[in-house]
Each structure stands twice: as C-alpha cells, then as structure tokens.
Write a structure and sequence with these properties.
Elements (H helix, E strand, L loop, with lengths): L1 E3 L14 H4 L5 E2 L2 E2 L9 E8 L3 E15 L13 E7 L5 E8 L4 E7 L9 H4 L3 E4 L6 E17 L15 E9 L8 E3 L17 E5 L6 H4 L6 H8 L14
Parallel strand pairs: 1-13
Antiparallel strand pairs: 2-4, 3-12, 4-5, 5-10, 6-7, 6-11, 7-8, 9-10, 11-12, 11-13
Length: 250
C-alpha cells in the first residue's frame, strides 16, 4: 500500500501548487514496460497528494521524442506524449481515467470494468487545473534528450459518480501510466505491471492500493517503492529539478 500525504492547502489556481509544496511529497516511478514488443522506457516519476478540495499530481518525464498536437479537452491525447491516472473507489468495479498531454490537455472518462465508458461532460473536465513546463501551445514532433514537467489539480467534483467531499482516510485502487501511441518510439509504461496480452491500460485488476493519509508524513524516508523502481531511480537522477501501435481501448 502506498500512502498519500494530506496538505492543508487552499487551491484557487494551479499557481498555488508551488515547488515548495511539491518538495514535501515523495516521488514514485512509472517504470513497468509490460509488453516485450514495446521495450522503450522513458524516465518518468509522479508525486501525488490531496488537499481539502483537490487531488494533486506532479509528473516529471525525460524522453527521446515529444509531441503535443491535441488542444481540445477529451481529444485523443494518448497519441501525443501523454501521462495517465486511473482510480477506483469501489474495489475496481468502476473507475475514472484521467489522461493529460505534455501541454496539459485533459481527457476524463468514467468506466465500468472491464469496459471503457463515455467521456465526461466538458463542464466537468474544464474544472481540472494544469500547468506544463512546455507551456500550452501545441507543437509537432521534437526529438532529443527532452525533459518536461506537468502539475495537475483535480477537484473532487470530477469524481462525479461519487460523493467525494474529502479523501482523508480513503483506501482506493489506482495505477499511473505513460504512453505516446503515435510517437517515433511508441511506449506503454505503468506504475504497477499490467497482465493484458497487448497494450491496454483499462485493466483495473492491475491497480495497486493507496491510502490517503490525514496528515503529512515524512514520505521521503518512508515511502514505499513500487515494482521496477531501482533502475528507474538511477535514470531519474539526470532529470532537472526545476519547474503506430494501438491499444485495445483508449
């Protein structure tokens, strides 16, 4: 079980989620390449915390190729350089999937396992706050040794099929992902291994267990490290400190 810290922070805008706030939170690698036909593993890590009103995510990525073509919410962001977060509140029976391009373009679905469900209303998706180190202007493919960061604040109203007023003490199941279906070197990474025969993130049986704490812990010393972390952490030492293959389903 991975413990997620509570931060007593009022989030009015994404700029309230400062580097000083994020420095209190431990990082976890997204490093499992579950499909041998897609061995490329860019260096990816994520931080997660919760506040009285928002779930906070902060991704740090280093990869060979990036693209940000999609700008409309609920568009095909998984084809760009993309990070994802799937979460279930009811033992993996239903789950939400959040997907973000490297410039922060969001997608949100609510799903009944094992099938992908309809897209969430745009009025809900538009409440998600994000900020990327790459800005928000779309661009075509860039190649090189490229690093980027993305901060996301998800209001609890986005969990529209549940009544979530607070995450304190909640135990949920979740998984994190990194993909880029249409990049020069497609890749499909997860925090916890996925057993599907081909790339498919809609596998709630792969979700790990998370406990949302009621207060901040010293997670830098005590955080659990998911599968595949050792090599990944060595590669992430080079990340800056500052701010077509197809899947079975989207």
């Amino acid at each position: 079980m991975i413990r997620i810290p509570y931060i007593n922070l009022y989030v009015n805008s994404i700029y309230d989620v400062t580097p000083q706030v994020l420095a209190q939170v431990a990082s976890h690698p997204i490093a499992c390449a579950s499909w041998k036909d897609f061995p490329y593993t860019p260096a990816v890590e994520v931080k997660m915390a919760h506040t009285p009103s928002h779930l906070l995510l902060h991704y740090r990525v280093r990869e060979k190729s990036i693209r940000a073509r999609f700008t409309q919410p609920n568009s095909e962001v998984w084809n760009d350089s993309c990070v994802e977060f799937f979460i279930s509140f009811d033992g993996r029976k239903t789950y939400y999937n959040f997907e973000f391009s490297c410039i922060g373009t969001p997608l949100l679905r609510y799903n009944t396992a094992p099938h992908a469900g309809p897209l969430a209303p745009l009025a809900c998706v538009d409440n998600i706050l994000s900020m990327s180190s790459l800005g928000s202007v779309p661009f075509e493919v860039k190649n090189g040794d490229l690093a980027w960061q993305l901060t996301v604040a998800i209001p609890y109203s986005c969990f529209f099929a549940h009544s979530v007023a607070s995450l304190k003490g909640e135990v949920v199941h979740a998984n994190f992902y990194k993909c880029g279906d249409e990049l020069a070197e497609p890749h499909f990474l997860s925090m916890f291994p996925v057993s599907a025969p081909q790339p498919d993130f809609h596998c709630p049986e792969s979700f790990g267990e998370f406990l949302f704490n009621s207060q901040m812990d010293n997670l830098h010393e005590n955080a659990e490290t998911p599968y595949g972390a050792a090599d990944h952490n060595r590669r992430l030492d080079k990340l800056p400190k500052s701010t077509n293959a197809s899947r079975v389903a989207i």
